Amino acid sequence: MSSDVAQLFLQLSDDLGVDRDQLIASADIDPIWLEQPDAFMPVDSLYHLTRQLATLAGSEDIGLWAGRASFLNQASLLKYLSAICSHFRQWLHMIPSAPVTRAGIGETVVVRDGDMLCTEWRPTVSMAVSGRYIADMMLSMCQCMLNSVCYRPVPVPRVYFNYPEPEDTTVHRQVFAGQLVFDQAFCGLFYPAAALEWPIIKVWDEKSPVAENNLLSIIEKGSSDGFMRRLRRSIVRALPSGKMTIDTIANELAISRRTLQRRLSERNEVFANVVQELRSAMAVRLLTDKQIPVTEIAFMLGYADISSFSTAFKGWHGCSPRNFVS
User: Fold this and answer.
1) Are 59 and 275 in contact (CB under 8 A)?
2) Residue 2 — φ and ψ, nearest 5°?
3) Fewer CB within 10 Å: C terminus or N terminus of the chain?
4) Predicted confidence (pLDDT) per residue in 222-256, tens digit
5) What gap in Å lies between CA 21 and CA 197, rounded to an integer?
6) Does the CA dihedral 105-107-113-116 come out positive or negative?
7) CA-to-CA distance for 50 and 207, rounded, in angstroms?
8) Are 41 and 3 in contact (CB under 8 A)?
């Protein structure tokens, strides 16, 4: 797994007054794993690190704090998504495979429950191995996102935790506004499905849709062709799922595959080339913002791991993403 999550907990240790060197030594972490944010380390080592931090900090709430920190660390990526997405449905489709999915640790999955949606955190290991800290981090981060991305905060009336109720739930009640339900089969936040149609806040700053060389202008490539603008936006929104095909994009555009191919042919374009051109241009733009980890850029562009992304990037630009940003 990428070491960027470990870096987050190490920063938290600094802020809590826990000696970083003592933490790394007690958790038996190889410092080499921490030299680069996109370096890889064993999953078990991350869980051991979080358990040791909780012990040294004397607090079981470190995951809840880490989630809030993780949300703020995603600010740059969330800004870009606000330019790409118009409604919560589109934003939610992109998020699980970008900042919320963590390679090797687990994934978030949005499921329907009547008139509610539930964002579940599904770890790759058992609770006995992981402890509560990563689950708390993911739930806390998702809570912050739901409260911030729409003009109307998305209410979370109920939160599930897959561990017994702690003796002190003060921080839980500060972070989560809804009913807290412990000892459940999974961790998850419940919120109304009606929020899917709520508009996303647009962030207007130097990277806004009207600024030069921002992500949206790269996606739309300054095109006056309405069809190509819609096509490119649809591709970008579908990439994080990892299952984007010409058929899924045709369905998104409410046309047949044959019609999509014909319209591209009329413009001397090929679908696969449009996808790769988008990925290449977006990769360069996102890599210029060093606040976004390379692993998350890979997920946003539809790659299952950083190795696949690095191979593709070398083919486009002749160097690895890490060397490009250094």
Assistant:
1) no
2) -70, 150
3) C
4) 567 889 988 998 898 888 877 789 999 999 899 99
5) 47
6) positive
7) 35
8) yes
Q: DSSP states of 78-140 as a string?
A: HHHHHHH-SBHHHHHHHGGGTTT-BTTTEEEEEEEETTEEEEEEEESS-HHHH-SHHHHHHHH
Output the CA torsion sign for 1, 41, 120, 153: negative
pTM of the predicted model as reported, rounded to 2 decimal places: 0.79
Token pair recorded at residue 293? 């980890």
CA separation for the pair 65, 59 (Å, rounded) = 11
* Partners of 2 in beta bridges: 40
Cβ neighbours around 149 below 10 Å, total: 21
Q: What is the DSSP string of 266-284?
A: HTT--HHHHHHHHHHHHHH
Supply the DSSP symbol for 234: H
**Rounded distance between C-alpha atoms, residue 22 and residue 174, angstroms:** 30
The low-confidence residues of the chain, meaning pLDDT below 50, are 97-102, 206-212
